[in-house]
Amino acid sequence: MTDTERAAAEARTSLITPPAEPAPPDPEPETVPAYAADPGDHDARLDEFLDAHGDWSKWRIWSDDTTHAIHESQTLRIERIHEAPAHETAWVVAAYETPVSDRMWHLTATAATPAPRAAGAAGPPRRP
Rounded to the nearest 5°, which phi and psi values hold at 84? Predict the structure, then answer.
């Protein structure tokens, strides 16, 4: 075979991939009344998120009261305020068009937000 024929044969076989295994189904959500929802451990949720997503980095500023998580693109950021009162903002998730532009959108959650909900807010949306 010539180099061109070999490259063509490799290109044809590289397009044939075995079918992917189906993803396990998501667990059924548990519905509880808002007054019964436990805020849980938000710091543990942030750590779990960062461990599962290697393209995010954890940063502490001059104060230990706040942790920042920044995506490698520097256009997605999470701010976690550790000792916020229950009714105050404890999470800010924001997106920027470029690393130095104004915020395009942001989401906030209080310290009383149930931890599973906060974990969902901390990450990018799931793709179907």
Answer: -70, 140
The DSSP bridge partners found for residue 76 are: 95
Cα dist from 79 to 22, 44, 96, whole Å: 34, 14, 14
Strand intervals (E) in the chain: 56-60, 66-71, 76-81, 89-96, 103-110
Mention every residue, 6+ apart, whose C-beta is less than 8 A from residue 107. Answer: 91, 92, 93, 94, 121
Residues 6 or more apart whose CB falls under 8 angstroms from that of 59 comprise 67, 68, 69, 70
SS3 44: helix
pLDDT single digits (tens) 6-47: 887 777 665 555 656 777 787 787 776 766 666 778 888 888
pTM of the entire predicted model? 0.60
- Model confidence pLDDT, tens digit, residues 74-84: 999 999 998 88
